[in-house]
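User: Can you help me understand a structure? I only have the sequence.
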Amino acid sequence: MRHPEERPSWEQYFMDIACLVAKRSTCLRRAVGAIIVKDRRVLSTGYNGAPSQVRHCIEVGCLREKLKVPSGERHELCRGIHAEQNAIIQAAYHGVSIKGADLFCTNLPCSICAKMIINAGIVRIVYQSGYADVMSEEMLAEAGVELVQLPSSHTEVGP
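Assistant: Let's start by predicting it. Here is the structure, written out as tokens:
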């Protein structure tokens, strides 16, 4: 019989789901997963990869890798869409309002995603690992979006 203290908190539960979503990523450099949650209900999910009907980096290679572009720079050279963007797009595609929701993401969003998150009305971001983009944190703080970092030891999924 399981003990009640073994049951994950809501934050751990949702981060575990985001980590599982990241396993669908087709990026050769970093697997990222994101879920949007409101009232303890998952509204949408997203992982980083190419748009629908477009070949993924695992099929055609990574231009950013070939050009040795550092993480957090020159996002326009990537054929993929970030996990946070995909989660926002999926909610819009299915007509689901995400105003006032929380975003659980395996990484702190970049500044491009931060702008979308702010305008989408997301109020809190729970993330596991940081990201090399100072502007992102500055804009999110200015817009009043709460940032919560969970230790990665709480987000391990399966063996």
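Now, to help you interpret it: The longest helix spans residues 10-22. Residues 110 and 136 are 5 Å apart (CA to CA). Let me know which part you'd like to focus on.
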